[in-house]
Structure formats: C-alpha cells, structure tokens
Amino acid sequence: RIEAARCPDVVVAQIDPRKLKKKPTVNISISGCQPAPEGYSPTLKWQQQQVANFSAVRQSLNKHRNHWRSQHLDSNVTMPKSEDEEGWKKFCLGERVYSEIDALPDNENLGIDYMKVGFPPLLSIVSRMNQATVTSVLEYLISWFGEKKFTPELGRWLYALLACLEKPLLPEAHSLIRQLARRCSEVRALEESKNEEQISALNLIICLVSRYFDQRDLADEPS
Question: Lowest CB count within 10 Å: 93, 106, 166, 188, which one?
C-alpha cells in the first residue's frame, strides 16, 4: 500500500514519434475457404463418396499397419529424421519439384530415380511414421505449399499423411489442416487454366479436411 501511494494517479507514456513512421501490419486470416470457381464446386454426393472412400483407406491402413511396418524397405530408401525439414521435402517431392526444374534427363535404361522424382507414400514407408513424424512432415509440406504451386507429388503425400493422422486431432494438427484447406481454396480460386484434374484434387483435400475431420466451416457448400 505504501508503494502504491507513491505512484502518481496519471501516467503519461513517453512515445518516440520516429518509431511510428511505419504503418503497423496486421495479419488477418479468413475463417472459411474461398469458394470454388463457377462450375467447379463439388456436389454433396461427391463429397460424401470421397469421405467414405477415405474412411475405408484409413481403416485398411490401421488394420494392416503392423504388416506393412515389418516389410523391408528397398536399399535406396533412407527415410530422413523427423526434424530434417529439407530432407523430407526432397524425399517426398523429389529434386525436380523441390528445385523447380522443368524437366530432368530421361534415364529409361536406368529405371526410376526416386531421388529426382520423389518417393511415393508407400505403405511400407508411411506405416513406419509415428504421429509426431506425420505431423512434422505435414507441416513441412504445407509450409512449402504456402509459396509454391500444387503438384501431383504433393497431392499424393498430403492425402497419405491425412490418412495417417489420428483422431481426435491434436491442436497443432488441427491448425495445420485448416491452414492446408485455406491454401487449397486460394490456389483453386487463382487457377486460370481451369485444370479439372488439379481443381478436383484441391476439392478433395478441402472436402476431407472439412467433412471428415469435422471442420465444417471450411466445407464447400453445393450450389
């Protein structure tokens, strides 16, 4: 009480006007997803079918996880450590996508070089990933996608990682998949060529996040 009595009733802050020259920036995140381009909004029946298919994939994966985990990986498969962000991006996307190279020399006689084209999300690979690794790799790929274009390699891995994501979602995973759905809607809205295959893939991810993982405010509403 003695210390409080010594404090003045009114305090005036001394503000340096030089520090106020720059306008403050405010990051605003929209709550929902941007709507699909006109004519490309998925029907409710299509969305329900995708959720059913996805649920079946998850059940099969959980049922046979121990079997696939016990399978030997090929000698050329070296899974990065969980904290190796750049390693996982290259592993999943390949040098061509990661380095944004338009084309690589064909080596038909040498077979597929997975270091260049990326490893597919084989069951023997994803079954070895614990939840911490699944969440980390999902974060790495979503971060990459935040500034890059959508590719089939990315789409396959996003689908596989979502299939491995356990419910109920941890807060970190919850935030990540919402970020992913919003980014998909943003890319979809900017799709100038109206590539049906790509828009369908983006619709699928938004559908799974919103309707399977119960983020209904992000769902595409059928027109």
Answer: 106
> What CA–CA distance (Å, rounded) separates 110 from 163?
32
Domain that holds residue 118: 40-101+112-218
Whether 65 is covered by a domain: the verdict is: yes
Task: Determine, yes or no, domain membership for 106.
Answer: no
Closest CA to 201 of 188, 216, 219: 188
CATH number at residue 61: 1.20.58.1070
pLDDT tens per residue across all 223 residues of the chain: 677 676 666 666 666 555 454 444 434 344 678 998 888 999 999 999 999 999 999 999 999 999 999 988 988 899 999 999 999 999 999 988 888 776 555 554 445 788 888 999 999 999 999 999 999 999 999 999 999 999 999 999 999 999 999 999 999 999 999 999 999 999 999 887 788 899 999 999 999 999 999 999 999 987 6
Q: Is residue 24 part of a domain?
A: no
